[in-house]
Amino acid sequence: MLEIRALSKSFGGVKATDNVSLDFADGSLTAVIGPNGAGKSTFFNLITGALRPDVGQILLNGVDMAGKTPPEIVRHGIGRAFQVASIFPSLTVEETMLAAVCADQRRAGVMHRRFPLAETRDRAEHAMELLGLAGKRNRTAATLSHGDQKLLDIALALVLDPKVLLLDEPTAGMGTEERWRMIDKVRELWEKQKITVVFIEHDMDIVFKIAPEIVVLCYGRILATGTPDAIRRNEAVIEAYLGSDDHAGALA
Amino acid sequence: MTELQAGQGAQPLEVPRIDARPQRYRDLLIALAAFVLLALLPMMFGSKQLLDFVIRCAAYGLFATSLNLLVGYTGLISFGHGMFFGLGAYGFGLMMQKTGVPIPVAFVATLAMTFVMAVVIGAICVRLKEIYFAFVTLAFQMLIHSTILSWQSLTGGDQGLRGGIPRPPFLGIDLSNHLHLYITSCALLVIGLLLMRQIAQSPFGYTLRMIRDNATRASFIGIDVWRAKLVIFVLAALFAATGGIIMALFVSGAYPEFAYWTISGEGIFINMLGGVTTFLGPMVGTVLLLILNDTVTRLTEYHGIVLGIVILFFAIGLRKGLMDFVVEWFAQHRGEGRG
Question: What's the rounded Cα separation, in Å, for the pair B328 and A3?
Fold first, then answer.
């Protein structure tokens, strides 16, 4: 279980995350939404160690992650995919997966053996097949389409066998059809892997369709949490989104 | 159909899997063949100049290939890597002159001293990124060069280590014999290259590639980026120092130029000439630069201009090193899909 307790982070006088407390149950699927500048990515950065919180706790099964480095947090079981696909352009899909499994097995520093290690193959293969990338194993990451790069980014997080998977706008930069395919894939992964998935998403249609739980952030604070129906009816949420016709329409 | 759909619908293809073992044996065989060929060279050509050339290639080749572990494999552009070449030469020379220990002991002690220096310097430098890393390594190089110049009682100042380096025989090897020195240099070169190849093709080598491509992402899959950078910085220093030791043995001395920034500059030039995306690129670059140096110096006193033009040709004309160009050309003609 991932528990966030009174998490705060300020940049100068701006409170990017302000006293946020949340629980993410094991195996839950939660969407984090909010207007631009609501502090969604900062929230992810704090959980994954990219930023150090000013105060607060990030408890993963009772162990506080606050103040730990990204590699330490990853090893505790929090994986992350990025808004802009964060991959290794010169490596092939297969090399990327194999090297990531090596890192997860604490063999990233092994020098007396040749890459790839036999014991890393099965997990790498499984992740590639899960994400539909097995047929592109010999393609370098730089030559993949935008959609495949996003899948590879998710595969990189997933191959580490995380307990919690954070997806920062998995559909960013995609066309309508691709977005739905990607989000179906996310849902499929969640159902198959039975891990806790938290994702940031701007497309309200997607959020309301697939997320059983929604967290709304605004100015770094929690505006509302609940089921899609509860969020739709929440007046504070509607008010926060009134500035955006698209979102207000989607909420309505 | 979008690319994403294509990706989802694609069935796993019967593609050749990466296999580690044949590569290792292939590298061993190539190394062995190279050593045999180099060892036979004196019998085929009696030219002392050719043997001298190969010894210099061994010294600079080890130095340049070790620099490529930083530049090409890790994305750390060091402007001060030459300091370890100089430290190797001076450390070994001083050890032999002042203590009179056997050569293998001086060799190991020099590497140990280089190790300590590299850990201290690396711990400071690898925290920095890009241009800051480059300039701080350069600053350390200038510091060491200045120390060599000013500590006259120990280093001989701008005159270097004078009086020659004693080279007592050990295990039947007499390094004052030119042929023995040649064979030993070749052996050190081949062993050094084989070890660096092993590092480059190991899981750690792929960790370095990940750091080069995207250090932030590497840390988010559990890699301790700082530690990996420090390890390769120290290892590269040890190989550079070995190059310096060969040079000290060859010239029977050590000179401040060995630790000057121009050595680091030559290392960068060599990598640009030979290419940084293939393992043997720096070795090819070394041969090219030394040939250019030797021939152009003989023909004109303006050799710097000629070298500059050649480097501009590679940098602006080809936009890659010679081996990069050759490998790319072959890949294109074999229709390979790798970018």
Answer: 51
Residue B214 lies in a domain: yes
Whether residue B203 and residue A71 make contact (CB cut-off 8 A), yes or no, is: no
Are the C-beta atoms of residues B292 and B309 closer than 8 Å to each other? no
A57: β partners: A5
Separation CA B8–CA A128 (nearest Å): 11
- CB-CB neighbors (< 8 A) of A110 in chain B: 202-204
Q: Is A56 helix (H, G, I), strand (E, B) or coil?
A: strand
Predicted ipTM of the assembly:
0.89
A191: its two tokens: 């159902």
Quote the minimal CA–CA distance from A109 to chain B in Å: 5
Among A81, A133, A77, A68, residue whose Cα is nearest residue A104: A77
Q: Is B15 helix (H, G, I), strand (E, B) or coil?
A: coil
Burial label for B50, CB within 10 Å (0-12, 13-18, 19+), is middle
CB-nearest to A94 from B18, B201, B209 is B18
Residue B14 located in a structural domain: no
Cβ-based contacts of A136 with chain B (< 8 Å): 7, 10
Question: Mind listing the pLDDT tens digit for each residue in B146-189?
Answer: 999 999 999 988 999 988 899 999 999 999 999 999 999 999 99
Q: How many separate domains does chain B show? A: 1
CB contact, 8 Å: A176 with chain B? no
Using the Cβ of A132 and the Cβ atoms of chain B, whether some distance falls under 8 Å is answered with yes
Look up the domain containing B123 and give its range.
19-261
Question: Cα–Cα distance between B78 and B91 in angstroms, integer?
Answer: 21
Residue A104: what residue type? D
